[in-house]
Amino acid sequence: MKSWLSFFVCVLLSLVLSACGRSQTVLDRVYVKNATNSRITDVKVRHEPTERYGAVNAILPHKSLDIGFSEHPLLARKASVSWRDDDGREWKYTVALPYGRSIGKDGETMSLVYVIYPSGLINVHLLESVKNK
Fold it and tell me: How far from the centroid of its chain's Cα atoms is residue 65's Cα?
C-alpha cells in the first residue's frame, strides 16, 4: 500500500514540476513605436513587479526606438508607460503584458513592442526577433 502511495506522490510531483518548468519568453529588444502624427517626448516604461526601466527623450512621428532594456526573460506581468504629446499633455497607462505558454518557441527570443496611437491609445505585443529569422 505504501509503495503505491509513494509512486502516486512521485508521479504527481513530476507533473507539477514539469508544468512549472516551462521555458520563459526571452526578450532581446523592447521598443516603443510612435503611431501618431506628432513627436512624443519623455517616454518611460517600467515593468512590474520586476522594476526594469527604460526611457527615451523623444520619438518622431511614425518611428520606433529601442528603450534600453538588455536581453532578459519576460518575468513582468504589467508595465507602466508614460509620455508627453506635442501639446505637452502627459499620458500614463498601466498595460498587461502578453504572457502564456503559446508565446514564442523554446530557445527563440522575442521583441516586445509598445505602440502609442493618437488620442492616447496604447497597445503592447510580442514579435519574433530578427535574430530568429
Answer: 15
Classified as helix, coil or strand, 27 is strand
- pLDDT of 1 over the 60 cut: no
> For residue 30, what are the contacts with CB-CB under 8 A and spacing of at least 6?
45, 54, 66, 67, 68, 69, 111, 112, 114
Nearest CA to 36 out of 122, 126, 112 is that of 122
Answer for the pair 40, 84: CB distance below 8 angstroms, yes or no.
yes
Alpha helices in the chain (DSSP H): 2-20
Tell me which residue of 89, 93, 96, 30 sits closest to 64, measured CA to CA: 30
Residue that the C-alpha cell 526594469 belongs to: 52
Please write the tens of the pLDDT for every residue from 55-91: 999 999 999 999 877 787 888 899 999 999 999 999 9
Q: What angle do CA 133, 100, 78 make, to 5 degrees?
A: 100
- The verdict on domain 24-132 having CATH code 3.40.640.10 is no
Is the predicted pLDDT of residue 54 greater than 60, yes or no?
Answer: yes
